[in-house]
Amino acid sequence: MQRRGFLASVCAVALLRGLPSSAQTPPSLLQVARRLAAETYSPTQTPLPPPFTGLSYDAYRGIRPIAGRAALLPHGADFEVDLLPPGLFFPDPVRIDRDTGDGPEEITFSLDLFSFQDRYFDTAPETAPGAGFSGLRLRYPLNAADRMDEVLVVQGASYFRAIGQAMVYGLSARAVAIGTGGAGPEEFPRFTHLRLHPPKDGTVRMEAVIDSPSLAGHLDMTLRPGADTVVDVSVTLMPRREIADIGVAPLTSMYLKGPLRASVSDDFRPRVHDSDMLLIENGAGERLWRPIANPVRLETSAFVDDSPASFGLFQTARAYTDFEDTEARYHDRPSAIVRPKGDWGPGAVVLVEIPTRDEFMDNIVAFWRPEAPLAPGSTHRFEYTLRWTVAPPGEDGDARVLQSRSGREHDRPGTRRYVIDIAGPAAGRRPEISAHDDAEITGVSLFDLPDGQGTRVTFLLTPEAVDTVDLRLVLRAETGEAEAVWLHRWTRARDGGV
Questions:
Q1: From the CB of residue 297, how many other CB atoms can be counted at a distance below 10 Å?
Q2: Does 20 have pLDDT greater than 70?
Q3: What is the C-alpha separation between 131 and 455, in angstroms, rounded?
Q4: In principle, which of 90, 179, 257, 408 could form an S-S bond with 186, CB 3.0–4.6 Å?
């Protein structure tokens, strides 16, 4: 508390400007977004000035927010704020307002809020016209009462990511996606204005204005940190043109390799991924389990639905030995679950898988796409909760998919064996496996795993001449009810094999 009191006294010095009087109440950010939507898009991006231009990864990390000026700024009793510099992947300026109880005040960008490490910067910079903050970081006593841990980062386009207790950052969320996985270039709407509201009962609310050539919009989120961190989200989208390729509540992750096809990367680690499973609870009450892959070419899968109950990208492997990576700590990276509020109507959960040869770029995206295109001049509001967790997917069910594996069947060239382990005993269960196109499915069997570890379903896939096969496994109970639905898209390997 003494440290926070000291920082509060320091950061009060000229960081905030223009406290609005009651006669000059600023417009809400939703009002700002509505005005933007009625106007022709006007890009505000300008080339970054020195010293923020042309930075390497290490040089960007050499720019540090100074405590009491741009870092560890107290925001109520439970939170602290870090203001993030521009540069590297984050060239676009973002206006940041902070409301501590007397109305929003804009934080003025200044070079003297940051330190610049000598090894990357020959002289201390004096001016940087046109530069601005690239985002912010929120801190909270997440794991210990006397330590302010990072809990949320908002930086880059409309990206944000959060963690709960004992987690490290992994996959990200976005306010909106446009054209992801399509034939044309993807459009990345960005946050142009952020506003932090006063914290209340261990939560904090943040608003954002979204802008891009195709739409303007507004994000309203309330962060509730904890063992699981939950974000209540409301996104309002106002298109400037018709948008058929919208992505609502998008989640962005990375998948390089895992036991479904370990040969993708010659690497000492058995797994390299932030997420390995898409789980959908659809409007019909089914659970669809879709393992993620690193395909040979871009693959887009659409799971048609009407008002889904939830969808999420999960990290199902949770032991250090699953990854053997002491630095990346993939086993501690969170899953993220979108749970819509209200009726989202007909549409599809879309999964985009992009081929990659390394782990440094996100290549997996999942989102909701409404059936009807968004018309210009219309307004669309989507509300949902976003939970960041390390809990196993479908933990309350008896038919949880535990793991999925595959490998070449060496005594049958051109054939691949699949192994799917599912919680619960084998007695009374019956697998139904289908494949599209001319692929052949043989050798289907089901049996108990040792020591009550679950049920194993295994089968052989012979794709013949086709390059892509959509597989569907339905595990039925003795009553005929579908306990679990497992889906996978096989694609031919880069070397032409299975």
A1: 12
A2: no
A3: 58
A4: 179
Would the pLDDT of 485 be above 70?
Answer: yes
Q: How many CA atoms lie within 13 A of 146 on its CB side?
A: 2
28-81 pLDDT, tens per residue?
Answer: 999 999 999 999 999 876 789 999 999 999 999 999 999 999 999 999 999 999
- Residue 136's DSSP bridge partners are 83, 154
The residue written with tokens 């797994």 in the block is 271
Measured at the CA of 91, the angle between CA 62 and CA 66, to 5 degrees, comes to: 35
Residue 330, both tokens: 């993939």
Partners of 338 in the β-ladder: 311, 386
Phi, psi dihedral angles at 129 (to 5 degrees): -60, 135
487-496 pLDDT, tens digit per residue, is 999 999 877 7
The strand ranges marked E within 59-199 are: 63-65, 73-75, 79-84, 95-98, 105-107, 114-116, 135-144, 147-155, 159-162, 172-174, 176-178, 190-196
Is 0.85 surpassed by the pTM of this model?
yes
What single string gives the DSSP state of each residue in 59-74?
A: HHHTEEEPBTTTBSEE
Fold of 401-491: Immunoglobulin-like (2.60.40)
What is d(CA 237, CA 158) in angstroms, rounded to the nearest whole number? 13
Q: Could you tell me which residue, 12 or 460, shows the higher pLDDT?
A: 460
Phi/psi for 241 (5° steps) reads: -140, 170
Asked whether the domain spanning 401-491 has the same topology as the one spanning 2-389, the reply is no
Query: Is the pLDDT at 372 greater than 90, yes or no?
Result: yes
| Residue whose tokens read 């009002």 | 31
Record: fold of 2-389: Beta-galactosidase; Chain A, domain 5 (2.70.98)
List strand residue ranges (DSSP E) for 254-353, in order: 255-257, 272-273, 277-281, 287-291, 299-306, 310-314, 335-341, 346-353
Where do the structural domains in the chain lie, given as residue ranges?
A: 2-389, 401-491
Distance of CA 290 to CAs 204, 275, 404, 411, Å? 34, 11, 10, 28
Contact 327, 345 (CB under 8 A): no
